[in-house]
Amino acid sequence: MNVERIESSLQPRFWSFNRPGQSPSRQLVLLSDGNGEAEVDGERHAITGPAVMWLGSLRVGRLRIEAGAAGYRAWAENQIIVAAIGDQAESASLGYIVDRDFVLSLAGHADQAGIIERCVAGIHAELRQPQQGSPLLVSALVRIVLVALLRASGGETPPPPASGERSALLQRFRQLVEMNFRSHWTIAQYADALRISPDRLHAICTTGIGKSPKALVSERLAHEAAIRLERSALTIEQLGHALGFGDPAHFSNFFRRMTGMAPGRYRKLVSTAQAEATHVPAASFADWP
Prior knowledge:
Helix content is about 50%, strand content about 20%.
């Protein structure tokens, strides 16, 4: 996660985000004063302080902050957002808002505005001078920010299209997968954590997104493996061990089954493509940004 202060300036400032080659991240803009605008895939979102902008759709975008504006800009990858949301029953509401793009005026929400600003400032300070337990503290502050956004929305954020118990359980399952896929939980363990039967979990997943729970877990694990093969200097054996595979052959067989090629070949293709500035289509796991 990253946070930077937006100092009052005589000139407008510009940032781009989620461009090809960049890690997808959710964006937060908090303005105490001034104006700005984000363009996300042709959609424009204007912000006038005091206000907060949340861009959670992970789409390519561009941000412009006008001269004189002040506040903070923050961006976070999926892992820290998932950790902040948690896997409690109430976490489903947070899960619904983090995937959306919206702007909330904080005029008339002084309490929530103060909470958000203090937490963002705290994250900024913690990231500049990390200490023991910093990841836990940052995660806790992010969760408080998300709860404050939920409260400040006051119904402004549109409800999810598929509300109800099934969608809430599906959201909680996805959160549990994000937190435990490296530990190779069984589907029975996920179902037990959700206090439902494995058969019901299977029905919820296949009805909601057309995939079995096992397929979703495998895709998340393969997605993480592909990212690490592209960006990590670990050996194939070390990488497999970090993802919970005790046997390198087991990891290689799993990755080949999921992507159609061995881990070493995938890494070599990506490395060659980067050196030659060409594009290699990444392994596609659309349900995991």
